[in-house]
Recover the amino acids of this structure.
């Protein structure tokens, strides 16, 4: 009997890369492979796969490795490891069954067609692969001096030009202390911005690999690299601190050109390079960039003066350790991800020229100007909101967020003005120096980590659709190389608490596994030896006076913030199926929980010490975001139990039963202590706040059914007595709707979700918000700004409710790591007549949509090949319909609408 067949798999992906094109500069010699199968016959289940690997020049023919396995996500590299710089072409094909060939079609017919070929190329894998050294200008490029350009030259033989057949390949391996932008022979190298990004520079520094084959030429080749302050030397945090990692900018660059005769020509950064001033007079991520466009950026082979300034010598500044810190990227680079036109140009009450781009975003303004004289100044100031009709800069605190230009004054033509070494969070811009500015002269350039969109949601309520769009835009703006809290003020840090609560939403909306894996590597690197966890990653706060005074000599152990060490790796594993993340992070996870156990002692209760608590609970005063109603000890002990449980589950996944048993027992002891200390027999939880009930219900901290029933009833009462207004901060907000549904209070959850008065999720929507706010009442109903200091209008944490929209409202959730099994369980309510979600799982696109009409509930489910789904249909009565278990393909059900009014009965 013929085996079921599958179509050709998609082109394999390497590690967590989601971008198209060759996977250059992979940082592992044995990259894992993943693929999806677009379609297959009914009954198909993968039983085996073959990987065809064709290596580079001089290698023998293609190697084909057969593996009897149903796996298709992050499967091990099946061949000898790649050497540094080595490239290989990889194809896969799959077949059903056990691999036996007794089907009627024979061995070849049983296999799918081959996939397309992916090119994977290793980067420089060891410090010894580098001949380049970090170099820095001797006199130029110091603090408060123009941004320097470093220049190197290499001669290539005749015929070594792109397309001439002489050049086999050319690669540029590059990084910097600071941020860089490179050109080769006057042409931009790559399209990344703000590279190499921000990591824990004391432990890890990314380098990038660029294919520059098309840019090299016969004869002299000139590589120029502009260096900016970036995170390395610019302002970071409060108090005007600069140069936290060092006071010198530096470049590491290695250009390798391989020619057909087997030669490799290398230009490596060393003392032979030179430096000169650029047109960028000053640059800072918080304050902006000032540029003198009268300085021509042209190569100069031997002039003693370049761009109106001297040529400077460079010197080597690195130690061997700097090369040992180099790592290849795990996630995508920062790129321009969109361009938005101006919506309108108008005058403020004071007469300033303002531009509205219609969307709060992250990036910069690109202007086209004409008719200006050389040296005329154009100034662009940025803000997220208007305040009294003027640019609302108070939320920026000390960040100037200003770009300025001294124009070249191009005769008879347009001049384009935009920065390259900064970014801003804004919707509005105030522009001076440009008479008669038109809307089509300005556009907003959107930048961020180039994450692949992977999740969508929609429903019959356009307000919820706008809320979801706001969550997406907040993630786009704040996922700029690290998961920041906000993108606009003098902060922009990787606050651990924010991403801890938001990580499930992030993993659904965008392909974030590589991005978060990289950040978690920084988290482990910055964790303190005693297991305590910095508030922000990369850590730039622990050595500040404020932190030392706040912590009073203790290691930071803030609940919900430090618990990012355990919860974020677990979420990445659950949503991507990558157990290697758990293996790498488990020592960090254990160290955090061990630290908490030491603080708690025999009581197993977390008491005292510095806590953020339920940050920006709406009942907290504007000047005291710590002042939440939920007791901080209750919050801390609940998180202790949850983190211990997560470590136990992670160890179980990794086959470490002894560790799993140890931490499972610890979690049980903490849960018992929690219930004894903080919960009454009737289920009342200390401090009687929505957040403490949400934690207790969502994380199974209530041992008896009576307590669970009482806690659920009390949570619903609190929500109702608040007028169905949200009363939670960062900690409770992601869990409160889940807790209500678990307690059987579905309509209470929906009434909370759909409240439009302040505080609520939809209040900002009604106020015209296009991103998520840090405070529920960041803007007051009269349009004035909240008087508090914590006043970001782009802060994704409170948007963590989107994960509930995906899992519960639409009904699409993972039931096994990596969505290998799906849980489809929509919970309709709130008067919604339809909802839908779809997600690009590691196995392909899964989709759920439902509609209520004419007394019937219709459900449509698409299950990707390689997965199964358990489908729960809502029932109008008891018992509910039995769950259905389905395999790949499209499925539909039609049942009675569980929320339809019952038919009228006769008298």
């Amino acid at each position: 009997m013929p085996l079921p067949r599958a179509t050709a798999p998609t082109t394999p992906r390497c590690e967590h890369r989601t971008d198209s094109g060759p996977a250059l500069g992979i940082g592992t010699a044995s990259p894992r492979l993943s693929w999806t199968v677009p379609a297959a016959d009914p009954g198909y289940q993968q039983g085996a796969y073959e990987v065809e690997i064709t290596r580079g020049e001089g290698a023998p023919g293609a190697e084909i490795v057969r593996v009897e396995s149903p796996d298709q996500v992050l499967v091990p590299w099946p061949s000898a490891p790649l050497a540094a710089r080595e490239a290989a072409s990889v194809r896969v094909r799959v077949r059903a069954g056990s691999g036996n060939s007794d089907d009627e079609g024979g061995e070849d017919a049983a296999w799918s067609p081959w996939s397309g070929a992916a090119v994977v190329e290793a980067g420089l894998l060891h410090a010894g692969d580098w001949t380049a050294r970090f170099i820095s200008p001797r006199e130029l490029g110091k603090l408060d001096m123009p941004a320097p350009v470093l220049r190197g030259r290499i001669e290539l033989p005749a015929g070594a030009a792109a397309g001439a057949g002489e050049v086999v390949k050319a690669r540029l391996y590059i990084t910097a202390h600071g941020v860089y932008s490179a050109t080769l022979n006057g042409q931009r190298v790559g399209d990344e911005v703000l590279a190499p990004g921000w990591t824990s520079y004391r432990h890890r520094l990314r380098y990038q690999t660029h294919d520059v084959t098309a840019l090299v030429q016969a004869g002299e080749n000139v590589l120029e690299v502009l260096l900016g302050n970036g995170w390395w030397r610019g302002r970071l945090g409060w108090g005007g601190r600069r140069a936290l990692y060092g006071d010198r900018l530096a470049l590491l660059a290695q250009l390798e050109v391989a020619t057909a005769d087997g030669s490799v020509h290398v230009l490596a950064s060393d003392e032979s390079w030179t430096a000169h001033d650029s047109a960028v007079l000053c640059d800072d991520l918080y304050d902006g960039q000032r540029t003198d466009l009268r300085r021509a950026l042209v190569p100069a082979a031997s002039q003693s003066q370049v761009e109106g300034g001297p040529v400077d010598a460079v010197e080597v500044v690195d130690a061997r350790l700097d090369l040992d810190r180099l790592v290849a990227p795990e996630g995508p680079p920062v790129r321009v991800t969109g361009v938005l036109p101006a919506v309108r140009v108008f005058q403020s009450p004071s007469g300033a020229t303002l531009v509205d781009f219609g969307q709060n975003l992250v990036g910069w303004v690109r202007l086209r100007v004409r008719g200006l004289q050389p040296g005329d100044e154009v100034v662009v100031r940025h803000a997220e909101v208007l305040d009294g009709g003027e640019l609302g800069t108070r939320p920026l605190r000390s960040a100037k967020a200003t770009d300025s230009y001294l124009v070249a004054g191009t005769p008879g033509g347009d001049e384009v003005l935009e920065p390259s070494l900064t970014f801003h969070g804004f919707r509005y811009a105030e522009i001076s120096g440009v008479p008669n500015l038109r809307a089509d002269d300005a556009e907003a350039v959107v930048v961020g980590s180039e994450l692949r969109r992977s999740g969508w949601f929609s429903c019959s309520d356009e307000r919820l659709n706008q809320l979801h769009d706001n969550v997406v835009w907040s993630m786009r703006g704040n996922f700029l190389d690290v998961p920041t809290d906000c993108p606009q003020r003098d902060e922009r840090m990787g606050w651990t608490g924010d991403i801890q609560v938001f990580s499930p939403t992030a993993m659904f909306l965008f392909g974030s596994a590589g991005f978060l894996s990289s950040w978690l590597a920084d988290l482990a690197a910055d964790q303190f030896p005693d297991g305590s966890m910095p508030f922000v990653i990369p850590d730039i706060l622990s050595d500040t006076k404020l932190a030392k005074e706040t912590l009073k000599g203790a290691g930071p152990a803030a609940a919900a913030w430090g618990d990012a060490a355990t919860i974020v790796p677990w979420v990445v594993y659950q949503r991507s199926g990558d157990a290697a993340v758990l293996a790498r992070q488990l020592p960090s996870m254990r160290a955090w929980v061990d630290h908490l156990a030491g603080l708690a002692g025999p009581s197993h209760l977390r008491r005292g010490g510095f806590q953020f608590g339920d940050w920006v609970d709406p009942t907290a005063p504007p000047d005291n975001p710590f002042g939440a109603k939920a007791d901080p000890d209750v919050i801390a002990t609940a998180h202790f139990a949850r983190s211990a449980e997560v470590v136990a589950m992670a160890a179980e996944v990794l086959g470490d039963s002894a560790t799993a048993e140890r931490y499972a027992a610890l979690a049980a002891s903490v849960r018992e202590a929690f219930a004894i200390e903080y919960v009454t027999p009737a289920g009342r939880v200390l401090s009687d706040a929505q957040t403490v009930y949400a934690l207790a219900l969502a994380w199974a901290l209530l041992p008896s059914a009576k307590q669970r029933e009482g806690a659920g009833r009390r949570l619903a009462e609190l929500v109702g007595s608040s007028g169905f207004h949200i009363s939670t901060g960062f900690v409770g907000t992601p869990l409160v709707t889940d807790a209500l549904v678990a307690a059987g209070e579905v309509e209470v959850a929906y009434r909370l979700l759909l409240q439009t008065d302040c505080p609520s999720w939809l209040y900002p929507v009604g106020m015209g918000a296009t991103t998520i706010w840090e405070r529920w009442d960041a803007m007051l109903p009269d349009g004035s700004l909240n008087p508090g200091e914590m006043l970001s209008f782009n802060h994704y944490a409170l948007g963590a409710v989107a994960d509930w929209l995906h899992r519960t409202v639409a009904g699409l959730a993972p039931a096994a790591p990596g969505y290998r099994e799906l849980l489809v369980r929509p919970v309709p309510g709130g008067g919604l007549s339809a909802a839908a979600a779809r997600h690009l799982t590691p196995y392909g696109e899964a989709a759920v949509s439902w509609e209520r009409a004419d007394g019937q509930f219709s459900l449509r489910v698409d299950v990707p090949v390689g997965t199964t789904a358990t489908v729960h249909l809502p029932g109008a009565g008891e018992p509910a319909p039995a769950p259905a278990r389905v395999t790949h393909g499209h499925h539909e059900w039609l049942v009675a609408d569980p929320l339809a009014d019952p038919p009228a009965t006769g008298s």
Q: What stands out?
A: The radius of gyration is 29 Å. Residues 127-327 form a domain with the Jelly Rolls fold (CATH 2.60.120.260). The longest strand covers residues 353-369. The mean pLDDT is 94.
